[in-house]
Amino acid sequence: MYKINVSIAALLLAGFSTAVFCQAARRSETYARPAATRTERSLNANWRFSPRDDKDSERRDFDDSAWQRVNVPHTWNNKDAFDEMPGYRRGASWYRRDLPIGREFAGKSLWLYFEGSNQVTEVYINGRLIGRHIGGYTAFNFDITDAVDIGKTNLLAVRVDNGFNTDIPPLTADFNMYGGIYRDVRLNAADKLHFKIDDLASSGIQISTPVLSAASGRVLIRGQVSNKTGRARNIDIESRVIDPANRTIAIAAATLSVPADAESAFENSTRPIAHPRLWSPDDPYLYTVETIIRENGRIVDSVSEPLGFRWFKFDADNGFFLNGKPLKLRGTNRHQDYKGLGNALSNRLHVRDMELIKDTGFNFVRLAHYPQDPAVLRAADRLGILLWEEIPIVNYITDSKAFADNSAVMLREMIRQHRNHPSVIMWGYMNEIFLRVPKGANDLYPATVRLARELNNIAHAEDPTRVTAMALHGSEMYNITGLADVPDVVGWNIYKGWYSGEIDDFGTFIDDQHRRFPKRPLVISEYGANGDQRLHSDQARRFDSTVEYQRKFHESYLAQIDARPYIAGSALWSQFDFGSESRGETIPHVNQKGMFTSGRRPKDVNFFYKASLSHEPVIHIAVSDQPFRAGEKGLRSKIGVYTNLPEVELFLNGNSVGKKRTVGSRTISFEASLRSGKNLLTALGTFRGRSIADRATVHYTEVSTAAPNIAINVGSNANYTDEQNVVWLADQPYAKGGWGFLGTNAKNIYSASDYRDVLGTPDDALFQTMQEGLTAYRFDVPNGEYTVDLYFTETKFAAAGKRVFDVNVNGKAVLENLDLFQTVGKDRAFSKSVNVVAAGGVTIEFVRKVGSPVISAIRLRRVSAFLSRHPSAVDDQNMSLQIVARGR
Question: What pLDDT, on a 0 to 100 scale, did the predictor assign at position 747?
């Protein structure tokens, strides 16, 4: 049986020139925290920004008066990544701001600290280059002590470049690589005798628990002290373990000699601490380790780091264990992306994301696909969320020394900056790395394996207390090349039933992997399906982006994962919709597999997970994705309820629809006939003797040929709700007395390759599906005057003359020799409205000239019930035509 146990890793290093001793602490002692020894000043405000890479922008005499005024966090791609122009701006931009350095900073060591800037950053002080950092997702700092003028206002200028670079990961990815200083910036000041600040922007302190059990735990504190005072110093290093009530529970101390202008390492170890309170998702009990430098009784510097007593292991047959107990990792993936902000989130929004995740009931998050904001790590510690954090090597690599070196630095930075967080259990370094290997570049396969081994060794050398992980997609090349054998834990990104195959193929695939490679611990690192809240269908199917299919997908996957104890855990894709400029699906430029929209509106499927995972009572009427519905009078609508209560009764407009028991499921489905207008729904259950309720409202529009206002999503199985809350009904074949399409050769255009950004409309989903080859569309409506709206787009041909057809309405030509590409171009919305007087219904005919006719949507609206004259008198003057050609 293959096990990875990180509870007793040997961490002691040889060669430390320091005396180490321990002393017991009085457990009742309340710790009086010393006054702050460092100064941290936020530099987030009052920047001047230019999107141009102007020469001499670093100079003090450069005129930036016309530059834009911004605050950081900031990105210049929060809008252009979502417009209809292909791509978004990637290149260099400049930031400048005044940097006052008062005389209170005289004699101090001064540092600029950047939490994140994407992706190559050059920092200048008063025109002088201070430093250059490569990588967009880890922190970095630069010593500016000798570069600033004390008592004066200095100039800070920063050049940021998010342009593509073959030597910097990620090369490509299914997320936007926003440019800018998108995390916090600050000025740090410390005594010239201080804990090492330039240890890859880490705290300079490493905390571990090399010996730990429920009965006892010992804390090991390691670090380095920098002496920039110009003379040798003899100091004391004291480390205190402090509980949340501010009581000292252990003290470790050492004496240290630090030569002039040099660094010395130290190591403190506490005596065993009896019965430490263990950290877990259910009880995220956090201690603090405060380490101070004291010279002649005076505190010179201090650093506080989190401490959680916990140990874990992965077992290839039985999954994951925390503190000796089995725990299924139930989780999600999270991108640092927010509607309207790109990646430039405030700490408050980062923390709120983690709180939403915890509130759903998840205990695990994969921070895809890059190291995330320090606020995220702190929130995970506090909330009790276990983390897989990784560096952004995605899709394929460049086989170059520079790429390997940059990858190694990113990995070391991530580990050193975040290694003290008890929430982190896995370090990752590659995601779907064979997904986009260039054709013919077979030499990249062995090169990737070599790089993975190098990074795996680095991760274990930097932090032997945690495991390594890699996320793979469904390619056999990972097994053939041996890449899947490199990490400690294998993650599989599985989308069976979405990008290919059927939902049940998930179990077949993962069972086969476990059978063939029984010693590999397994995590499902991604699984998911689109959920567009505007699209709904009772006949949901793969790749239709309906919320019903998304719900069906997740309900099945969670059951399949739970049925397999060897699966250590899972992380769905993803918690929030996020920007992906290259995607052209029903919401262009957005990956919409989230449990929430990118603006943090929850989708109904989120409550399936909450009902399945939360310890709190949950009852949710799953209609918030579809508050507007339409259909025939008396049509029975499906009403879903997610709950962890044993029984639920549903009421519609005050009348009971019935009671149903959950019987082990978290999903209950009712059927009810909605009335025209507003419908009030109430679901009731009981939990420990008290009533639990949820309420929702659905607005229903009756649609019939007798009083027609009919909108049709032609070629689609789904209803679509537009911005005006008009419900466009799913397509159907014609039946006498109703409406629908005619033509035995008609077919729906419906596949992943046909989902693309349709320019000139917010209703991409309406244009992306269509009927091709139909002969007519028929409405059996009463005599009267009607407006017919016709909607088209050309998604197939990129040249004129490939598709030409006529459109007639009740025998009158309204469009002749329509060539959509020639008229508006490829992937552009085109619409036409016509008024028609109907006697005996409305028939829209499509006459083939070249290729096959197509249409994406039709809307028929009654204007008048009575004819002002005989229908045979209709002429061009009565036929009011409006052609709208929508483009960029």
Answer: 58
Provide the pLDDT for residue 868: 38
CATH of span 709-885? 2.60.120.430
* Residues with catalytic function: 432
HSE toward the beta carbon, residue 479, CA cutoff 13 A: 12
Report residue 802 as tokens.
């490939």
Rounded Cα–Cα distance for residues 99 and 156 (Å) = 6
Per DSSP bridges, beta strands 619-621 and 636-643 are: antiparallel
CB 767 within 8 A of CB 829: yes
The CATH architecture assigned to 40-190 reads Sandwich (2.60)
- CATH 2.60.40.10 in the chain: give the residue spans: 3-35+197-307, 628-701
pTM for the full predicted model: 0.93
Strand partners, 669: 640
Residue 271 carries which side chain, given as an amino acid letter? R
Right CATH for 312-615 from 3.90.1300.10, 3.20.20.80, 3.40.980.20, 2.40.10.10: 3.20.20.80
- Range 766-779 burial, b when 16+ CB lie within 10 A, else e: bbbbbbbbbebbbb
- 413: part of which helix (H) or strand (E)? helix 401-418
Q: What integer pLDDT is reported at residue 257 of this predicted model?
A: 96
CATH number of 3-35+197-307: 2.60.40.10
Mean pLDDT (whole number) for 757-764: 93
Convert the pLDDT of each residue in 681-721 to its tens digit: 999 999 999 999 999 999 999 999 888 899 999 999 999 99
Is residue 193 within 8 A of residue 227, CB to CB? The reply is yes
